[in-house]
Structure formats: structure tokens, C-alpha cells
Amino acid sequence: MKVCVLRIGHRPERDKRVTTHVALTARAFGASCFVLGDVEDQSVSESLRKVCERWGCGDFKYLSGVSSIKFINEWKNSGGSVVHLTMYGLHLDEVINTIRSSSKDLLVVVGASKVPRIFYELADFNVAIGHQPHSEVAALAIFLDRLFEGKELHLIFSDAKYYIEPSIKGKKVVRVG
């Protein structure tokens, strides 16, 4: 199953750090691509490029400036499913097994500002990570962790120049090659 994350409603002057964190979470938690819908923001792409250069990205892809609605429709037309993370959706515990058992590629939609109604209608699943206001970064991390059942937490990219050697105290960063 291929998983891609689509960020909608990004406001460049306000959301660049949060959107960068959504992209980094997508990469680190096992998604194969990140799409910044409807806008381009060089600060997000530059931050992601720097992380990929040092820590690797494998086949992880980044797109920006594409129409979010067009991207969702094309995703669905190619046989994929769409999950929209929203506190108004069905609780994650009620739907994660159904989503995980599907062989369809999965597009996870994460909003920034108020999400227009059409995204609720286009989604196959509107999923809540609890029903309280919270961070979209946290919601994405929890969703991907539940989807991949924690396996993504051991991810090391084959093209990484550095990796972290876990230690009980301190920091140990190892350069590869």
C-alpha cells in the first residue's frame, strides 16, 4: 500500500513551520510522498530538501502547487482511497482495521485553515484522532503509526548520510561512508 499525504489550506506567512513538520512527519512515519496543495512555498521544500540530503528520503516524493481537488479526484480515479483527518470524523479505533486491510493506495488529507465541505465529501473516511482540537502534526503521526502498527518507527533510509545510534544518555550521530 502506497501512502501519500496531502496538506490543504497552507498559508505561507503563517503555516510554514507547521507544514514543514507535517511533511517531515509524513516522511519519517512511512508515507511515500507529500503534496502541498494549491500553493508553493520554497521554505517548506528547502527544509525538506535539507533533511533528505542528510537523513535520506529513499523514494519519498514532494510535490507542491497542484490543485488539491484535482489531485484527490485523480487519486480516486486511479483506485486509491482518501482519508481526511478531522476531529469531526469517525474515531480512529472504529475504522483503522478497515483502512489497514484495504489493498488500495491511501491519500491522507491534512488541513491547515478551515477545511471546505467538499473535502469531507470527497473523503472515503473522515477520521478523528480523538474529538478534541489538537495539532494536525500529532494527528498525522498517530494515524500513520496506527496504520503501520509501529513498524515505521524503525525506518532508516538507504540514502542517508547520517543515522542516529540510540544511546541511554547523550547524542550519537554516525556518518555513513
Radius of gyration: 16 Å
Number of DSSP helices?
6
In spatial order, strands of the major sheet run: 3-2-1-5-4-6
- Compressed to H and E, one letter per element, the order equals EHEHEHEHEHEHEE
Let me know the number of strands. Answer: 8
- Distance between the first and last residues' Cα: 32 Å
Structural class: alpha/beta
Weakly predicted, low-confidence segments:
none
Mean pLDDT: 95
What is the strand content? 15-25%
Q: What helical percentage do the residues reach?
A: 25-40%
Largest sheet: 6 strands, parallel
The global form is globular
Structure notes:
The protein is of the alpha/beta class and 177 residues long. Helix content is 40%, strand content 25%. It has helices at residues 12-28, 42-55, 68-77, 92-101, 117-122, 136-148, and strands at 3-8, 33-37, 61-66, 81-91, 106-111, 125-128, 162-164, 173-175. A six-stranded parallel β-sheet has the order 3-2-1-5-4-6, with helices on both faces. A two-stranded antiparallel sheet has the order 7-8. Helix 1 (12-28) packs parallel to helix 2 (42-55). The chain is globular and about 50 Å long. The model has no long low-confidence stretch (mean pLDDT 95).
Question: What secondary-structure arrangement, pairings included, does this model have?
Answer:
Layout: E1 3-8, H1 12-28, E2 33-37, H2 42-55, E3 61-66, H3 68-77, E4 81-91, H4 92-101, E5 106-111, H5 117-122, E6 125-128, H6 136-148, E7 162-164, E8 173-175
Helix pairs in contact: 1-2, 1-6, 4-6
Q: Key features?
A:
177 residues, alpha/beta, six-stranded parallel β-sheet, two-stranded antiparallel ribbon, 8 strands, globular
